[in-house]
Amino acid sequence: MPTYDDDPRYSERPRRQARSGSSTSSGQRARSDGETRRSSRSSSRTSDSSRRRSQDERDGRRRSSGSTRSDRDRRQESRQGSSQRTQRKRTPEQERTRDARANDRRASSTNRNRPRGDSRTQARSGSTRQRDRRPRTQESLPLQLYHRLEDVLPDFIPPIFALSLVALVIFLVFILLIVPTCGRSSAKSAASVNPSDAVPSEQAPSPSSNEEFDFDMNEPHQAALVKLLGEKEAAKLLNKAKTNIDALWIAAHIDEYAFDGSETQYKLIKLAADEDDAIPFVRSYPSSYPTAGPDDKAQALSAASPSSDVPGSEIPHLYQWDMRWANTSFAENALGVSGSGPTCLAMVCQGLTGNDQKTPYDIGKAAEKAEEAVNEKLGMKASYLYDGAKELGLNCAEQYPSYESMRDALLTGNAIILDIEPGQFTSSDSFVVLTGIADDGKAIMNDPNSMEHSSRTWDLDELAAMATTMYVYSV
User: Considering the domain boundaries, does residue 309 fall inside one?
Assistant: First the structure.
């Protein structure tokens, strides 16, 4: 068995330890060399392991890529198979719809990617070509119209604007054509009289004879006339409109008389319905009222002359709607509407004094100058019949109306003005003149607002029941 001394590794140790400092440095070099060899072996082992890991990773990616491609291939084959199965089930109509949707998607993608500015028109034309290949039979009529407008209109005009304009035009045509036709048909059913279809123009002359007129103009406002006057009075005016051009104009333009109030409108239209000779005044009222003064050149009414055919009567018969003064202003209205008081006083003055220069216009202006002598829109107050008599050179006595008092005053040659209650002859107070006693024992009456009332004689008891006060005049 070898001993410690025989082992060469230990036999050299005392000698190494006994060496000087040079031997110590050589031992350090030997240790550093050993450490270098160990670090090199360790780095080589690390590089080998990293190479092996990199190789394993590359192999794993290849395997993963291969599996992905195989899965993708399987999905592609499955999709193609389902597509083939779906194609076998689609009808030709479904195929066209599917192609149209694909074209729409391509057109929309083109529109999203189209350039701005100068190339906008080119992109639009491209999308138009795509759109033109769509099956038009699948779209509704409004949608087809929309697309056609979009193809035709310039780029700066949206199709919805053009459609809105077309709808507005259609609506206006409906309003202008359909609605008036419905109004005329309803008016025809509301009225009981069916007059002619003629309405004259503003410049049309008044007829001098009762000829038939057939102007192709607007129809009279039959329903409005019935509402304003009632069926009986409206029928009278519509019957006159068949042969009188002025009456026809009045019936077709009743709204022209509403500017001065509904009461004045009613009085004027009713006057035209009741009095043939008042129609020229009513016709001229919208354009002529008010005039500055009486028109001496206007033709006087045929009845505006002394009624000498009645024995003992020298009182002229004047009418408030005589064209010489009818359109003059009195009591903030036309004298032809509210001038019964001045007209009655003018008749009495001319008949008893012989002064035919005192016209209804003159007496009306004198009444307006007197304090509290005129009711606004209604006419002259009854008190001026007494107060104004002295200015005209007349004597006046105010009495209670009765059969005996009226008969005695008329038989002695006096004239009487009666204050008639509202609702008897007109809707407000009115005045009439009694000029004498006829052969039948009844009173002769001059009504300044009605030829019909003036054409007959009246029982004194009947007049006494309608009157509130009588004014007896003498010279």
Answer: yes
